[in-house]
Predict the structure.
Amino acid sequence: MIRSHIKGIGSYVPPKVVTNDDLAKIMTTNHEWIHARTGIEERRFAEEGVFCSDLGLIAARNALKDAHLTENDVDFIIFATLSPDHHFPGSACYLQAKMGIPGVACLDVRNQCSGFLYSLSVADAFVKAGMYKNILVVGAEVHSSALDFTDRGRDVAVLFGDGAGAVVVSASPSPERGIIYSELHADGRHARALYLDIWDISKKPYITEEDAKTRQIWPQMDGKTVFKHAVTRVEEVILHTLEEARVSPEDIKFVIPHQANMRINQFVAAKLKWPEEKFLHNIERYGNTTAASIPLLLDETYREGKIEPGDLLLLFAFGAGFTWGTTLLRW
């Protein structure tokens, strides 16, 4: 049986660091308030003129270098993002052009915080089917351009940062290693708990001058509803994943969670009665980078030498839509 695996991995964050104290200078908040509720201490912001695909390009090149491949070895690109370069065309097309590989198939995945796991499952299926050999999966975000840095928007604005992560998915050299199991879910009944209204195609015209003066140009979130559903659905999907894959919690070396909120991941660990140190994190340095958060954390963990061949890793995410899922893989 063909099994896919992560052949190479890379990431990138912009150099500009924005601390909680920096945000406190432009809106009514403080470091203690942000850190106590989210675990975040700082995040990275891209400079003006930097596109989502620009961050993705650097992460992609780092992943290809790690895989000992070149751009010309890529035969499919999947780009997960909440913050595309433009409403259309897809950011994968922009990335493909910057990589200089015209003709390579491109796909954007717009599943926000769960986007990377959805993309990884697509890549896994394509490799298993023998359709493509080396699939580049990118998660990249430039949130900082679309946040309301006033007191009205502070509850959302303090959460997010910019960054990118990428992996190359190829056929595994061993049937014992690679992606073992993926599980994906969604529940659109809760779409209005976390959303952005500005792209309302039902309106004619869909954007007016008056729209720019309203709150609909900024992300809106019902934090309590998101938190409640996140901890419930994540616990369910993790337990079901272990059952289906026939592995025990003790078999898992690390959990690589989406970095939405430190409290969510701590709460999930407590509900599962798993050691909190099994749940890795870097949210304190990068905030929530949505589709980029899992590959960014996975890459950092790999670079630090914490992951060895044969280690069993569990990835999970929950986000807008609602969408959520897991990936179980053996490194």
Summary: The two ends are 17 Å apart (CA to CA). The first strand starts at residue 4 and ends at 12.
